[in-house]
Amino acid sequence: MALFGIGNILLKVKRNSLPRPEKAGWFSILVAITAFIVALTGNIVMKHKEGVPSNVSVFLEYFIPSIFFITNEENPVPKNLVQEIDFLDREYPEISIEFIIEEGTFSPDLIKSLSKRWNIPINFMFIGSPGSHFPYKIEELGGVRLII
Q: What's phi and psi for 15, nearest 5 deg?
C-alpha cells in the first residue's frame, strides 16, 4: 500500500503532465502513507490471541510460494514445467518454492477441499487469470484472489 502512495508521488514528480482522470493532492498522499505505516506497525507489535497465529506469521506465509497444478487426461502437466520450477529454485535459493500436482478437475469444491486440507483460508489462495473457456465466475470460487 505504501508503494501505491510512492507511485503517486513519482507520478506527480516525474510525469506531472500525464493526463489523468483523478489526481490526489500531496496532503492526501502523505496522510495515506503515514496511515499505512502506523497500521502496519500496530499489526506487527499487536499481541496475538492464544491458538491464533500472529499477524506477522500470516503475513510471512504470503512469501512462501507454492505452485499447484491440477492435472487430468485433458490437462496434463506441461513437459517443461518441472524443469522451469527447478530452474527458479536454483536461481533464487533464498525463496523456497513448493510444487504440488493434484489429480482432478478445478472447481469451487476443490478450492474448499484444499482450504480445509491445508488449513489456509480461501482468501489467502491465488489463481492465475482464467481463459475465455473457464466454466466458473470468479465470484463462485469463494474469495480466491486473482493474479492478472
A: -130, 45
Q: What is the residue range of 52's domain?
A: 2-57
CA distance 100 to 77: 11
> Do 39 and 49 fall into the same domain?
yes
The pTM for the full model equals 0.52
Residues 124 and 99 in one domain: yes
76 and 118 share a domain?
yes
Separation of alpha carbons 60 and 39, rounded Å: 17
Q: Say whether both 89 and 100 belong to one domain.
A: yes
Going residue by residue through the chain (148 aa), what tens digit of pLDDT does each one get? 788 888 888 888 888 777 777 778 889 999 999 999 998 888 888 887 887 777 777 776 666 666 777 888 888 888 888 888 888 888 888 777 788 888 888 899 999 998 999 888 888 888 887 877 888 888 888 888 877 6
